[in-house]
Design goal:
Oligomer: single chain
Structural class: alpha+beta
Helix content: 25-40%
Strand content: 35-45%
Distance between the termini: 77 Å
Radius of gyration: 24 Å
Amino acid sequence: MPITINLDKLNKEDLLLSGDLLTDELQLDLGGKHDLIRSAGNLNYEINASKADDSILVQGHLKINFSCECARCIKLFTHTMDLPSWTTVLSLCGPDTTEVIGEYVDLTPSIREDILLSLPRHPLCDESCKGLASQRKVVQEENKNQSDAWDKLDQWKQL
């Protein structure tokens, strides 16, 4: 079931929403053949919605786990996305009007967009990950060859 705000209730008081949103309902479309982020767990949310003029101010905490493959060493790991101060403003009139269905506004598209924008482009199992051992040897050899070329150039300059 999507995360929705009842506008009739919101006009009377601020709303506190909490729970879990199933992965299928988020429709993140993860797990392509070459994607490093393979799948997601359920979204845990605690959000507060309040009416502000012709818009809705939504603030809260979002947390979700992703199954990832390290961009350096290809090891599988879990990446936890924790957005402790997530905020969005939904306009009820004007050019960026949020769709209202009956008396409900669906927050799921806004949440989906913010999650996708917060995902790392190149997930790492650890910031200090050195990558695959074979790749490290190749890089060291390339650096050694480059160093020799610069040394020869420096020697030529001194002549």
